[in-house]
Amino acid sequence: MNDPNNIIVTSASDLCKMAADYASELVEHLMAREESLVLAESCTAGLVSDHMARIPGASSVLWGSFVSYTVDAKAKMLGIPPELVEKHGAVSIPVVIAMAEAALRVSSASWSCSICGIAGPNGDGSDKPIGSLCIALAYKNSGHLSSESFSYLVREGNMIPSRNDIRLAAVSLVCKHILKKIIMDEK
Description:
Helix content: 40-55%
Strand content: 15-25%
Oligomer: single chain
Radius of gyration: 15 Å
Shape: globular
Structural class: alpha/beta
């Protein structure tokens, strides 16, 4: 796992544009490769798939999205053991890796990405701060399942951004990480 990276939020309009731009570029790259993506979204509640679906042609690359907002939904939709969430917390690298791998296994997609986070205004009862995000990618590598994970802390200077800004930052980060991996895979 990477150490948490601080993401500095500038303005809501910048975040909207950044999320839209990354989503558009992601759809274009997936279309060019004739590949698809499945998402397992928690704190974004379908916002990543919404941004992708706004792009013409997205239906050829967006397999679907599991909006697994609660521990119960994660268990029933993706088979995530509640014990894993109890041990590590809902916003944790082990949980997002399990979500990404489960979504990839049940879909026919080429790539999978999952996200969990604490968007606020209240925390989740753990010591994790508002603005904490965990992201995982899963993909097949020479026939074997591989995954990567990342963690972030979203901030606006020294302040906690709004719930919506944290969620938009999450959309940008998800699309950015998938894009980065796809572009690296192309080389």
